[in-house]
Automatic annotation (TrEMBL):
InterPro entries: FAD/NAD-bd_sf, GMC_OxRdtase, GMC_OxRdtase_N
Pfam families: GMC_oxred_N
Name of the protein: Glucose dehydrogenase (FAD, quinone)-like
PROSITE patterns for the chain: GMC_OXRED_2 (PS00624)
Keyword check for Zinc-finger: no
Cofactor(s), names only, from the UniProt record: FAD
Domain Glucose-methanol-choline oxidoreductase N-terminal, chain residue ranges per copy: 301-315
Organism of origin: Hirondellea gigas
Molecular functions per Gene Ontology: flavin adenine dinucleotide binding; oxidoreductase activity, acting on CH-OH group of donors
């Protein structure tokens, strides 16, 4: 956690971020976020086309390319900048509009009181790795009841106990474990999870305060999640490991896997039998069309996935008709029923001296990172 004050004329400008990225590249080189771009030109047809490189798309593209299938992954954003790899600089990336979709919730009179016009900013990463490249790197699993409710709605295999082996398979856990918690973790997967390396004084005091109130210190990956927990992070030796870093970077040289960043898919194309035959996408100022033999897999996030489906003619009939979009399939649930967990910000207390690193002083953060691989 860090304190940050951004105002007109702040030193946290795009040019400062550019300088930081150059310095980080010179110091750390190959351990920084990978610059994805595979061979030119693309094939005219693929077995599978994956739209989006977030935690869904990166995993799917990696797994599909383990076979002989030809796989194309298209990502609207570019590769993550070097600063995205340093925990303490995470909040600075909020000053880089190229990394986000710039989404805002529709203004409502009963919410978003701290936002302009009551319109809540809904941050979604527009970058290789999706939001895993720009989030706070906090790693936790959903609550058991969430997964069990999916199964109870008619989706066998999506309950917590059925999913636990896959959670463990993806995980390379380096945090603190006990005989009670060890069975909930995996130890050889592609996604490294470790204990947060930087711990501010106030964070330790908060944990102690909850313990005084009778709450136990828990592992947030357990099936029960009532308690207080110093969180784990998606980092390896203090460096961010996003979905694309964990699942795509190790396999980027597979000859049957093509990855194309800065490619915005605008439409899934269907034939007369309502079968997907390819996608249209924008790259630079040009529109391209690439064909698919088997499937188009849309993993563009909770907002852009239904948006792309509706732009392609799959969605609520009346809504598509109002927008004069030709209907391929009338599916009333598309674009509806989004549920997200609420977040509550408490009272902010200024202490002296500061107990956290100051994001307005990137030098201290970088020094902390160079010396200790911490800093955020």
């Amino acid at each position: 956690m860090m304190q940050l004050t951004i105002s007109t004329g702040s030193v946290l400008t795009k040019s400062v971020l550019n300088i930081l990225n150059v310095l980080l590249q010179q110091i750390f080189g190959s351990i920084l976020p990978y610059q994805f771009e595979t061979r030119q030109p693309l094939e005219p047809i693929y077995d599978f086309i994956v739209v989006g490189s977030g935690p869904g798309g990166s995993v799917v593209a990696s797994r599909l390319s383990e076979t002989n299938s030809r796989v194309l992954l298209l990502e609207a954003g570019g590769s993550a900048p070097p600063s995205a790899g340093v925990a303490g600089l995470t909040i600075l990336n909020g000053a880089n509009p190229n990394l986000f979709w710039g989404l805002k919730a529709v203004p409502r009179h009963n919410q978003g009181f701290g936002f302009v016009n009551n319109s809540i900013i809904y941050q979604q990463g527009k970058v290789m790795g999706g939001s895993t490249s720009v989030n706070a790197m906090i790693f936790s699993r959903g609550n058991r009841r969430d997964y069990d409710s999916w199964a109870n709605m008619g989706n066998p295999g999506w309950d917590y106990d059925s999913l636990l082996p896959y959670f463990k398979k993806s995980e390379n856990f380096r945090g603190y474990k006990t005989p009670l918690t060890a069975k909930y973790h995996g130890y050889g997967g592609p996604l490294t999870i470790e204990k947060k390396r930087y711990s501010a004084l106030y964070a330790r005091q908060v944990v102690e305060a909850f313990q005084e109130l009778g709450y136990g210190v828990i592992d947030e990956m357990l099936s029960h999640q009532i308690g207080v927990a110093p969180h784990h992070t998606t980092t390896r030796d203090g460096m961010r490991v996003s979905a694309s870093e964990s699942f795509l970077r190790p396999v980027v040289h597979r000859v049957n896997l093509d990855i194309r960043p800065q490619s915005l898919v605008t439409k899934i194309v269907f034939n007369s039998k309502k079968r997907a035959i390819g996608v249209k996408y924008l790259r630079g100022n040009r529109e391209y069309f690439v064909r698919v033999r088997k499937e188009v897999i849309v993993s563009a996030g909770p907002i852009n996935t239904p948006k792309l489906l509706m732009l392609s003619g799959v969605g609520p009939r009346q809504h598509l008709s109002n927008l004069q979009i030709p209907i391929v399939a009338s599916v009333e649930g598309v674009g509806k029923n989004l549920k997200d967990h609420n977040g509550v910000a408490g009272i902010l207390i200024k202490v002296n001296p500061d107990t956290v690193l100051n994001a307005n002083d990137p030098r201290s953060i970088i020094n902390e990172f160079i010396m200790n691989r911490t800093g955020g």
